[in-house]
Design a protein that fits this description.
With 314 residues, the protein is mainly alpha-helical. The protein contains twelve helices and two strands. The chain is 67% helix and 2% strand.
Length: 314
């Protein structure tokens, strides 16, 4: 009788939890799942921006085949056969790995500094979050002015220090465009990594450090043997969040280097085809591939990191 009562109570709690979650699930379906499914559907049609409901089913043409005019001239290529798409994939992956790696290292270092005891720590903690709090469009435009080759402060500073001998068009030069985007992104999002790592550090018991100090363990060994393993779940979750943001980067690139081949990402090129070139179905195929690539990267990261959804080691 008691077991039956407990089972009934658990079922009642499950039903209550479902009804609490139902509004959120419905909202997620409306704003995320449904647009995604529609985008995937459009990628298998010849839909245009001017006629969203008049497209015909063309199968995998937008992914694989070439479409040619009667003269033999290529009108457009399937996404997987388009060099411009693979250039965008390479730019995105390179940007994601470099930026997230540097941000993770700097984030841990900044978190260690903020976790130390010193006068004015609360003010420093608040101040260091300012770059992350600034909207990306605003910070991108601010850096675009600073990196300008005519009146930008970066060129004046480097000329004064003797680091360069002439003004450089940082965002227009194909050799420095990606570096410029990386610098701005690292400056903006390192505080985010530091904030999450700091939260992990504050969960580490102080007794462990006191015991290590009594035993005379070197601080570097303490970091690699105690601190890093204990904040690893937090760090891995932070890296997942940043990887998701980095793989779908759009606004920063669009403002700083909108037409540069060296920095054009998957989001930028898919937006060009969706809106500017009126290749709506083709852009939908690129958007669907972007979603698939992000899903694969996240799944591989979780699997290789032996991390479950709770952020605990398997």
């Amino acid at each position: 009788m008691l077991a039956s009562s407990e089972l009934s109570l658990q079922q009642q709690r499950a039903r209550s939890a479902f009804w609490f979650l139902a509004p959120m699930l419905i909202m997620l379906f409306c704003v995320a799942a449904w647009p995604l499914l529609r985008s995937i559907y459009f990628s298998f049609t010849d839909t245009s921006l001017t006629d969203l409901y008049g497209g015909q089913w063309v199968g995998f043409d937008n992914y694989l085949s070439y479409r040619e005019l009667s003269s033999g001239r290529i009108l457009w290529r399937g996404t997987l056969a388009d060099p411009a798409w693979w250039n965008a994939v390479w730019n995105t992956v390179r940007f994601a790995f470099v930026s997230v790696s540097i941000e993770a290292i700097l984030g841990v270092l900044v978190a260690l500094l903020l976790n130390a005891e010193f006068k004015g720590r609360s003010i420093v903690r608040a101040a260091i979050l300012i770059p992350w709090a600034i909207p990306t469009i605003v910070s991108a435009k601010m850096w675009a002015w600073m990196l300008n080759d005519q009146f930008g402060i970066i060129n004046d500073l480097f000329l004064t220090l003797g680091l360069i001998d002439h003004k450089v068009a940082w965002t227009a030069n194909i050799d420095t465009a990606m570096i410029s985007v990386l610098v701005v992104d690292i400056w903006k999002t390192t505080p985010f990594m530091a904030l999450l790592c700091l939260a992990g550090l504050q969960m580490v018991p102080k007794d462990i450090y006191e015991a290590a100090k009594v035993d005379g363990v070197h601080p570097i060994k303490v970091f690699f043997k105690i601190t890093l393993p204990l904040i690893r779940p937090t760090l891995m979750v932070a890296i997942i969040f940043r990887m998701l943001d980095a793989l779908r980067i759009f606004d920063l690139v669009y403002v700083l280097t909108p037409n540069s081949k060296a920095t054009k990402t998957m989001s930028v090129i898919s937006r060009e085809n969706l809106i500017e070139f009126d290749k709506f179905a083709y852009g939908s195929a690129q958007s669907s591939l972007l979603f698939a690539i992000i899903a694969i990267f996240v799944a591989l990261y979780i699997w290789l990191g032996k991390l479950d959804l709770n952020g605990e080691k398997n």
